[in-house]
Amino acid sequence: MHPDSQDVFRRIEREQGTYLEELEDYLRIPSVSTDPSFDSDVRRCAEFLRERMRQAGLDAKLIESDGKPLVYGEWTGAEGKPTVLFYGHYDVQPADPLELWRNPPFEPTLENDGKQLVARGATDDKGQSYAHLKAVGAMLAERGELPVNVKLIVEGEEESGGEAIESFVRRDAGETLGCDAVFVSDSAMYEKGRPSMLYGLKGMAYMEFRVQGPNRDLHSGSFGGSVQNPGNALGAILASLHDAETGRILIPGFYDRVRPLEDWERSEFAALGFDEAADQDSIGIPAHFGEEGYTTLERRWARPTLDVNGMWGGYQGEGAKTIVPSFAGAKVSMRLVPDQDPAEVAELFADHVRRAAPAGVQVEVICHHTSPVVLLETEGPIVDAALAAMADIWQQPVRVREGGSIPIVATLAEVLGAPVLLIGFGLSDDRLHSPNEKIDVENFYGGIRAVVRFLDRLGNLGG
Ligand code: BES
Ligand code: MN
Ligand code: MN
Q1: Contacts of residue 186, Cβ cutoff 8 Å, sequence gap at least 6
Q2: What CATH class is the domain 203-258+304-371?
Q3: pTM for the whole thing?
Q4: What is the pLDDT of residues 362-407, one digit of tens each?
């Protein structure tokens, strides 16, 4: 047995520079899943990962579907030992706005004396999920075997609400993916040196609406004031969604199913000692804002929210142009909590927007995708092994919730019936989805070692 993993740690110490270079190659492939013009890069990325899995000693293949390929690898030579399924995603968000990147988004660059690797996907989720593969690869290279069985599934449409993995997991019904624990690294530690295990993710309903006015842009002098302006109407609709004072969402029925925070959650969140001023500083705002009666962490982790993601309409170029625009529109996401139902909330939103539309325009509402709410009650020896493995590398982990969504997690928990461990190696200042996304190089290496510790601890359980 390898109670302290030192054999593998020595190898990681020697080889981690190479692991980082491999990650850089992975990051060079622009696997943007939401934009069809990147489809061939997405496939190339899946093939790259399959080859890397094979080089690590896994049996690996692509699982094809209507959507982007899934990459699957396994090593199942540890008879009678538990099986861990690792989940990650190889697709990334679009890199826009390009002009705000210090270096091109798909040319990974080391910054800050080599402490940070900057590239689209560095933390979300190539860097984090590649740590799984490197941990397994280092153990196999060092020992020729693993202490437990492992399976890796890496999807290519997490960022675009795709359904390839959802239908595969349901169809598979645990045959290929059967396991004793699911290990997901697609989130952040609470702060540097202080890891976290998430027990909640928000759900989501992603909406878009389009306000249609006149059949063409009109001269705003000749026609203005005599027709409903789609831009004005857009503003009125958006303003009707929130109470500007209290931050409450005004869609009728929106809060009906919201489960209140438990007292223990409120006190545990409060005990984390969240630094409001440092957070404001780090994101460059003069003050936090949100639903009255809740703290910043409560709002982020456990209260439902509604945000404009983008809006358009009318003239947006240089200088002034005098028109009544023909149309305007907005993309709006709602982040949901237990026990809200994303499909029901999508309906409530659509009804409200249609009602709020002023006379003189037509409004069309669509729902792009939904994601279920996740609230896990994980405990038991496997969870304890994961918590202990984190504490082997960093400080004692904290249990927290998260405002982000990972659509497949609810289905994995439901179909596989195994505890889901949401353990990320990112940091809250990683700028995921933003220009200059990065991963802390130490966290990448620490993530590899934490996974090694977890697998060794699991292999030693009960014997
Ligand atoms: N990794 C994120 C989710 C996340 C973000 C978890 C921050 C923990 C902390 C994931 O890649 C993501 O961005 N998910 C989307 C899902 C959506 C497209 C359904 C999200 O949350 O916006
Ligand atoms: Mn992610
Ligand atoms: Mn993401």
Answers
A1: 87, 88, 89, 124, 125, 128, 129, 158, 406, 422, 424
A2: alpha beta
A3: 0.95
A4: 999 999 999 999 999 889 999 999 999 999 999 999 999 999 999 9
